[in-house]
Amino acid sequence: MQTLWLLSPLRVEELVLVKILSYKYRLHTRKDEEKKNLVPFSTVVKGVLLQQLVQAIVAHFWLTTTTKASGVGEQPSIAKQILQFLIAMFIMDTWQYFVHRYMHQNKFLYRHVHSQHHRLVVPYAIGTLYNHPIEGLLLDTIGGAISFLVSGMTARTAVIFFCFTVVKAVDDHCGLRLPGNIFHLFFQNNTAYHDIHHQLQGLKYNYSQPFFSIWDKLLGTYMPFNLVKRPGGGFEARLAKE
Ligand SMILES: [Zn+2]
Ligand SMILES: [Zn+2]
Fold first, then answer.
1. What's an example Gene Ontology biological process for this entry (predicted)?
2. DSSP string computed for the chain
3. pLDDT 10s digit of each residue in the chain, 242 long?
């Protein structure tokens, strides 16, 4: 049955369509992905699962041993929730900028922790959270906890905030410049912006993640870039100062 489905004309058409569409909007060619990435897909999947498992265990103990953050109770007004959401975005960005930048400056941390994420020179969505478990704890778990506590949001708002943050991070690593992508309309810090950071020449720039580019701009680590059409289809994010 499985074989029949795999060979069905609909499946073939689907695959061809996905291939054409993704090729048209890719920031790197498939050849680039195979040539530049330093880790096979299967290792990335295992790494992501391990990182997620560690974070889930930590979050479970954190939630079951602290507070009554069960989401029960009154939700504040929509205006207050939006304000809390914006504060949490700013706190998350601030935490991630400085920790991320430090992980590049400290040779030990870079070599033993953060370089894992940079084995994907050509990022793809599944590899978004291909991080060392310590990086997951430092950047995401602690960053998320601080954003949650400082903003004062309820657990219910926090669920929306954390989902939004993950979706944004996946979009930043998807490697596609799809037309009408709402994140690209609202955020200057988007797929191409983070793609620059994954390229070898852009490694010391565009540390800001996941939402704004404020800290890069204030502290001189912003790398302007151009999106240029690649002959044969797709776009390329190129450093403006190359
Ligand atoms: Zn980095
Ligand atoms: Zn990344």
1. lipid biosynthetic process
2. -HHHHHHSHHHHHHHHHHHHHHHHHBSS-HHHHHHH-SS-HHHHHHHHHHHHHHHHHHHHHHHHHS---SS-S----HHHHHHHHHHHHHHHHHHHHHHHHHHHHSHHHHHHTGGGGGG-SS--GGGTT---HHHIIIIIIIHHHHHHHHHT--HHHHHHHHHHHHHHHHHHHS-B--TT-HHHHH-SSSHHHHHHHHSGGGTTS----SS--HHHHHTT----EEEEEPTTS-EEEEETT-
3. 444 444 455 555 556 656 666 678 899 988 899 999 999 999 999 999 999 999 889 888 877 776 555 545 688 999 999 999 999 999 999 999 999 999 999 999 999 999 999 999 999 999 999 999 999 999 999 999 999 999 999 999 999 999 999 999 999 999 998 888 999 999 999 999 999 999 999 999 999 999 999 999 999 999 999 988 888 778 889 998 76
Distance 84 CA to ligand 1 centre (A): 27
Please tell me the number of the ligand nearest to residue 104's CA. 1
Ligand 1 centroid–CA 236 distance in Å is 19
What's the whole-model pTM score?
0.86
Are 235 and 228 contacting, i.e. CB atoms less than 8 angstroms apart?
Answer: yes
Q: Are residues 221 and 204 in contact, defined by beta-carbon separation less than 8 angstroms?
A: yes
Q: State in Å: Cα 203 to ligand 1 middle.
A: 7
Phi and psi at residue 147, in whole multiples of 5°?
Answer: -60, -40
